[in-house]
UniProtKB/TrEMBL annotation:
Organism whose genome encodes this protein: Dufourea novaeangliae (Sweat bee)
Mutator-like transposase domain sequence ranges: 1-78
Source organism superkingdom: Eukaryota
Annotated InterPro entries: Mutator_transp_dom (IPR049012)
Family matches, as Pfam families: Mutator
Name this protein carries in UniProt: Mutator-like transposase domain-containing protein
Length: 216
């Protein structure tokens, strides 16, 4: 999302500047998009509704509030829905909405990034970044520059998915099946790799949570 928004900003003069497609707004829309996918990763339809809910949230005005698809309740990230739950809507004032020209420019991005084909790959929280990580792992074992055959790529894919889903201990199991001698260094290396992987995942999750709180 962020890459696409920055690209359209650079390609269209006049979209940048104060109260327009600023870096802050791009960051907000990007975080909202990611949160929608993670919250509703069990359903393509709910992911799509969640993505568009964030767009309509940001273009809403006092005269035309568009929060029907925003989460309801006092704990909602949507300030309008939160005010509704607290019965204080009469005092609620919308912030400045995304300008019309910016809306027009970014709608195609939302349409593209909420397509069924893309969201199918995000089911279960398996986002585009996850796909890129797995691909990187595959090609690290079967580099494109060496013209690896189909069988090698297939084996690399199985190994990469096994590591991605269950950790590097699976590599030890594969070695054991092949009757390879497994030493202490191999065990230690796998533990270190998994520790690094889990730590990085926790940091990313904490950052996402922190960004979500800032947007409330």
């Amino acid at each position: 999302m962020g890459t696409q928004l920055r690209k359209v900003k650079n390609e269209n003069k006049g979209l940048g500047g104060r109260s327009k497609l600023t870096a802050k707004l791009i960051d907000e829309l990007t975080v909202y998009y990611g949160l929608a996918i993670r919250r509703y990763s069990h359903s393509i339809e709910e992911m799509k509704n969640g993505i568009w809910a964030t767009f309509h949230h940001k273009i809403s005005t006092d005269e035309n509030p568009q929060h029907d698809n925003c989460p309801t309740g006092k704990d909602s990230w949507c300030s309008w829905q939160k005010a509704k739950a607290h019965e204080t809507l009469e005092n609620y004032k919308h912030k400045n909405p995304i300008p019309k020209d910016v809306q027009k420019a970014i709608i195609p991005i939302y349409e593209k990034l909420s397509s069924d084909d893309l969201l199918k790959r995000c089911l279960g929280g398996f986002t585009q970044n996850n796909n890129e990580n797995v691909n990187a792992l595959i090609w690290s074992m079967a580099p494109k520059v060496t013209s690896s055959g189909a069988k090698i790529v297939e084996i690399a894919t199985y190994i990469a998915l096994s590591i991605f889903n269950d950790g590097y201990d699976n590599v030890l199991l594969m070695m054991q099946i092949m009757n390879l001698k497994i030493g202490l260094n191999a065990h230690q290396a796998c533990q270190n790799f998994d520790t690094q992987r889990i730590t990085a995942a926790k940091l990313r999750a904490q950052q996402t949570t922190k960004e979500a709180r800032k947007l409330k």
